[in-house]
Amino acid sequence: xxxxxxxxxxQRLTRExxxxxxxEAIAEEGLSALAIEPLAxxxxxxxxxxxxxxxxxxxxxxxxxxxxxxxxVARVVDRLADESSPRQRLTELLRSAIEETxxxxxxxxxxxxxxxxxxxxxxxxxxxxxxxxxxxxxxxLGAGPAVAERHALLVCAAQVGLCHMLRVDPSGRAEAxxxxxxxxxxxxxARRAASPTDRAPAPxxxxx
Length: 208
What we know:
The chain is mainly α. The chain contains 9 helices and no strands. The chain is elongated.
């Protein structure tokens, strides 16, 4: 490993800047773009700035994945905080994953590298949180837990599919999103009407 230059430098960037640059490069060009020299050129600094913060490429990848995971959770929590109805919260949850282009691109890249020992577990955690959130919102809309879990899987699979499609035709975002949510809620309501046993259990009335 190259020696770390401990002298102050105006060119030395923060650890976060390197992580952001790594995520930007991965979103644009794939995992092959995660290379020290090209990232240094992108940032306009020398490799010494990199080695001030990281030992090697894998250390940067680990840090960038952690940053992406934290942002994935924080972004969704922030967007849902202002919405009161389960339907609107579901819409915002899907919109957060579709409208933010870089996040969607990164998820597609990471999905293609799911066998990587760091990428696979990280992606599993992010998608697991999304599945849990969607299922929770579907229960709030009246679905039973089993139905909510099945529908949540379909919703999340559709979201990933939309990310792929929107790379080709970004103009269809709003229409595709609204169609997805409308279809989901209507299908859920139809299922409830046809199968009352699939509904979430009603809260027990307290005895006066």
